[in-house]
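Amino acid chain
________________
===
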Amino acid sequence: MTDYSFLTNPNLPDEKIIHAVVSPQYPQVISALKELDVISITVKSCENVLYPLRNHTDMLFSYLGSGAFAVERSQTALLNDLDCMGLRCLSESIELKPDYPFDIPLNNCIIGQYFICKSANTPEILKQGKTVIDVKQGYAKCSCVPVDENSLITDDLSIYNAAINFGLDALFVRKGYIRLDGFDTGFIGGCCGKLSKDMLAFFGDITKHPDYAQINSFLRERNVYPQGLFDGELIDIGSVIPITQHS
């Protein structure tokens, strides 16, 4: 068994990742991750969430760093899997409801010391020890791409403005050009995830995004490189959330 350590900083591995929490809905994603020696741990479909989002990791699971996490109360199998790996659950009693904003308690984005969320609808236990950036957009994780501890990409103007006000480097890209079945468009944060310190994986062909040149430049300035895991349109899968990496 490969030795692994838990990510200290959520979303931002220091080494190549080993385990990630993902949706079971997209076999092509799981296959692509397997080819990169990433082990997928899947969420379970949650009937408390609107149908197109029932399998989205960023709706049902929040990794809080250093082995701590929170899950929606339906995720008993995921809870057991992570418990067996030595992670610790800070909350397993969060119950989502289909209507916004009662579906967003776990949909936060942690970047370094900052916790981006719609604060009024986010449990206090998740925010402990972080500087909260309160935003209007409840789907914060869906809308953010963590790049490093000081940088992000977003397709939401309220998040962009709030990040800039807190001194973060941010790139704003236009919304759209990402498939999310049941909705007009998906979100930039839902179609990607970091698989190592210098690799940001996209689920689909990121070069087809109209703002690819800006995205590529922003990433490369920070020694991060975009990698499409398969051909075709970008797909919002609810993100891939890394939890362990090589020791």
Remarks:
- The first strand starts at residue 4 and ends at 6.
- Residues 33 and 45 are 20 Å apart (CA to CA).
- The chain has one domain: 4-246.
- Residues 27-35 form the longest helix (9 residues).
